[in-house]
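#dry-run=false #mode=assembly
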Amino acid sequence: MAIVDESIIQQCRQDADAVSSTHDLDQIKSKYLGSKSAIRESLKHLATLDSARRKDASILVNSIKKSLGEIIFSRRAALLQEQTDRALADQGVDTTKDAAHWHIGALHPLTLTLNALKRSLQHMGFTIAFGPEAETFYYNFTALNTPRYHPAVTAQDTLYIDDDQLLRSHTSCVQIRMLEQQQPPLRIFSPGRVFRADTPDATHSPCFMQCEGLVIDHQANLSDLVSTLRCLLENFFGRSLKMRFRPSYFPFTEPSLECDIWFKDKWLEVLGCGMVHPNVLENLGIDTHKYQGYAFGLGIDRLTMLRYQIDDIRALYEGDQAFLQQEAQE
Amino acid sequence: MIVLNSHWLSEWVGAPIDHSDDVAAMLLTQGFELDEPAPLHLDQIIVGEITAVTPHKNADKLNVCSVAVGENRMLQIVCGCSSVRVGVKVAVAMVGTDLGGFVIEKRALRGVESHGMLCSLDELGFKTHSGGIWHLHSEAPVGMQLNEWLNRSSHRFGIEITPNRGDCLSVRGMAREFALGLSTSSSPPWQDDLSWMSLPEDGQITVTSEVADSVRAFHLVKCQRAKHVSTVPDWMTVRLLEAGFSLHHPVVNILNYAMLETGQPFHAYSGALSNDFHLSGGDNQSLQLLNDDEVVIDDKTLVINNNGKPACIAGYMGGLSSASQPDDEYIYVEAAYFIQEQVAYHCRRYVDFTQSGSRFERGIDVGFVTSALQRALDLLEKYAGFTAVSRSSLSVNAPRQYDITVPSDLPQRVLGFEYAQADLVSAWERSGCQVTRQREDYTIVPPSWRNDMRIPQDMVSEALRLLGMPNQLSSSIQLPIQAVRSEHEEVDSLSDDIRQLLVGMGFCESYTYTFDDVDSVSVFSESADDIVTLRNPISPAYSALRTTIFPGLFKQVKRNLAQQHQDIRLFELGRCFANSGDQIHECDQLAAVMTGRTAPENWSNDLFYDFYYAKDLLCTLFRKQGVDFNSLQWRSHPVAGLHPHQSGQYLVDGRVVATCGLLHPAVAKPAKILQSIYFISCDLTWLFRARQSVNHYRSPSKYPLMRRDLSLLVPTHVCYEQIQAEIRSGIFQNLKKIVIFDQYHGSQIPDGFYSISIGLLFQHPQRTLQDDELNPMLAELLSRLEEKFEIKQRGG
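#status=ok
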């Protein structure tokens, strides 16, 4: 019986590389490291050697044993890896295909516009307020310094339910409702739907959205109004704007102004505003020597159409899903 | 909008006025928007004279005219109008003339060449039914440009007048504004002599004291025909037509012209009336008006009576039988000042628009009534052949002159910036005010035509209008420190939460009209009595207020289906309306509609929306808002417009708070819709109250969930709700969740039964549950189900 030499390592490696399963590798393992293997025999044989030779021989045999162990171990690891890889490959799908599973929802462009304005207004300390859409003549007209037989009350413009009830023609009614509930100072905005007797066409809609703003304070003045609107509109359009304020008339503001912005090489009317008419405040029992304020009304539809280049207002009320899904980015 | 020719205005301003961008900008800064009037085609037209007329050989209705157009030129023009006669002066559009996109060409009409066209007023762009070619005045010079003959320029201004500026509904008023902008002055192009005031007094005018306050001036002048005139000058016709007035007989035309010029409305009564006029409130008499309407005159109406019979509604419209006629030998011309509120009442009460009413209700110039009357009488004499013979006037107290006290700090306080005192005073004076400064106040007497100047703030407005605002404004806005959290904010944030949820689930937000036709709204209304209708809808298609959002969404679904989108998910948050006694109940609603595939079309699965998707959408919404399901009661109940056996409602204390279901086949069928459409709705006013926000996050349980599955054979008449009620009846402790994971009707199931598989999930917060705890509870459930409903455990 002779002690193994290093050639067995090469032999073992060849044998191990030749197998393709861990089961076969187990047989290789028992051939080279099992109880009847040459290495075992050699270890047993070491005991028969004299101490002078035994030491060197022992080092040799043990190092060969270690190497064989490593060969088997690493081959096993490699085989296991191959097995795992094969299993994963079997689980593979054609990742180049697509299967749509999620419907895309979207907020309405009017809501996007409103959200943008809301963010700005809330930053500026305005609080949201709502009011009824079916209003009384009082809130829609009388309280807003527009007596029943005022020329601004043209029957053709307003949609009436009966003599007293109507669909509000502006969000300004909310000014009155809020001032009835809350003593000045106050700073509110009120988005919502308003109604006019307009037959739908590209630029008219019988229902549309307005957003009212109202500030009543000790010194709220026209300069504050102009600054507020500049800030609001510049935030909305995301750039500095050329703006123009020109005299106009609303029964419930004095002075009244119309605000235009320079947009795509022309002036476009975007809102009406003014200093709240003293009659409006006095009717509510507010001391006009102590308080004054300003109000503005933005056309949400108009701003939406400008912002998203929509040229027909009817598109906003037709519910065409392909239109709505365009997901106008905020 | 008032449309005025720039030539007319320049007669008042005394300088030519162009329609340039600068002028438009000037008017805009003064508060007047310009609009484009409907186009006219007068600019290339020439005055011609028909010199010969021969009938067309090949056409009965055509005539071949020889028309002189000046410089010895003669045109052969074929004309279809029967009023062609030798010697008639006509408006000739020669070859090459553009009549609004229609260019006159030389062409042959049934074999005869025609070199132009003889125009009617409507062919020139006027909105009138002229019924034939326009016969110009015989003195019109042949070959002259028509514009020159008409004393007009090709520039016109279409000016929007805000309701406060009644003074600008006239040439006089607008000329004043032009003069103001151009830093010049304006004056009438005639001599103001007031000779009518020295006419002999004749007849009497009285007024009942109750209505005396509504009348500040009332004059009648009786005129006698001196010669017969059948038509007014061509230039006057065109100025009236340009301004949008319709044409009548000469007296009416002239009075309209005078009104357009001066702003003072007039009325002409037939001279056949007696000279006894009385002004009073109405007495429910009926009166047939000039527009043929028969109206009942109520006691709030100011009426002018003649011989005890109503003849005219003051400032608004006259009666048909008392009106002046083309062949009257005498007429009465009325010039009055009725207060704005009075005529405004007439305008609203009797509805139809009148030129006179629209001026009175906006306020006319009380200081100019007598001058305007003189102008009207002069025009009547000159162009209608009527001479003033006598007058009578109502004696009224002269209108009180009022003044406005403007505290000197008011402009700064309102505007936030300051004007120099001299600038302020000069601005007010330029508008015609008399200004004096007394200590800390300005005392201002506004001009008689500025009815809009009433309160100190009006004077601030006027200063702002004329002086503008500085380029740089400084604002001293201070933000409040405390955060305001109102209920409105909470409602808004709920709406945003709901939008976020539905958008995340693939729904598109939509907006639909608040109104629809009555039938469409009725389909989805529980009761026809609920429906609120409009008194003056735009059309029947928009006459009923929605009681739910379903009709609008249904319309949009139909539209999308027509566009070949089959997979649709839309939602809207909006107001709905219902009658509730005398009041209108208004509530915020969420509604959604879904149809088609639950996912976009693909090869790996193909599920379609069904009733349970719709119902679970509601449940998901409720869970997301923390609604306590114990407070909710489900009721399988037909919902209006939905399938009677695939719809139902959630109730709270007997009140419906949410509904869902499949569109009723009877509604789908007429619309030729084959696919199933599901709706949900939820009352947001309720949800706002019912929602509970999480205010305590519990630690997750460390102990395992235990699951027990039951497969049950259930008699067909027993519904799931009954089984669930047993499960929830208190048998179980630590029951976390119930799931239905299978339902089966089929061959292995005995007749009269169905199979349902239910999973029960248990979890104890502090320990692992044991089988011997769960098994007795399960046994108890099974025995109760068997006892009550004859439900058996499948395979058990």
